[in-house]
Fold this sequence. Notes:
By secondary structure, the protein is of the alpha+beta class. 21% of the residues lie in helices and 41% in strands. It has an 18-stranded mixed β-sheet that branches. A hairpin with a 3-residue loop joins strand 16 and strand 17. The longest helix has 14 residues, at 73-86. It is globular and about 50 Å long. It comes from Chryseosolibacter indicus. Keywords: Isomerase. This is PhzF family phenazine biosynthesis protein. Belongs to the PhzF family.
Amino acid sequence: MKLPFFHVDAFTDTLFRGNPAGVCILDKWLPTAVMQQIAAENFLPETAFFVPAGNDQFELKWFTPDIEMDLCGHATLATAHTIFNHLNNPSDKISFQTKGGILTVSRDGDLLTLDFPSRMPSPAMLPEVIEKGIGIKPVEVWKARDYVLVCENQKQIKDCKPDRSVLDQINLDPGGIIITAPGSEVDFVSRFFTTQSTIFEDPVTGSAHCSLIPLWSKKLGKKEMVALQLSERQGKLFCTNLQDRVLIAGKALTYLEGFIHVP
Length: 263
């Protein structure tokens, strides 16, 4: 079986930055085990698989090299980029049927905007193993899908050197650990870590901003914000808080276009 495949860098306007995702076009769904094997073979943070469903609608699933995810921002952005730029979809708005509900993506020039559910976190107690492994004492701790550790400044986020051997003692699947702080040149910054996973630090995590956007909107008193994820590759996100929804906008670039061969 020969399947069209794209490798897209999401949340960036520069190749080799942002978060890389695989995008695989299907006519019908493959067995879950096969899609998981493809994602493991690609060894990208996420591989997205989609099936056209007619009238600018698509069914969409996401896989890390280890598990199927319930929500993924950057691979959704990469999929929309592929549909708009390589399938020549005429509409400027498409929708995806996913495990995380109906998600829409709109196009305005080269900027793509994800309409995602808001996941406002609640105050939480921080497990001792996370505080020890992160090596930073946060000023606030919150939790939705992910633990959100609010720190004092951007330098703490940039300089953080988590101890994976400690953090891997806790299994948070499908969640992770976000560290975040006010930004020096943007509204807020963050980094994202997933314990017991093949890829420990995610370069740019759209789904994490489902919690970061409402949290920072409340703290800053702003509806529209610019965020920077401070991984080695980095990525910029343009954020809007809509109460029960969040808008996450960014750019994307195609790195590779080809085919994969599946038995």
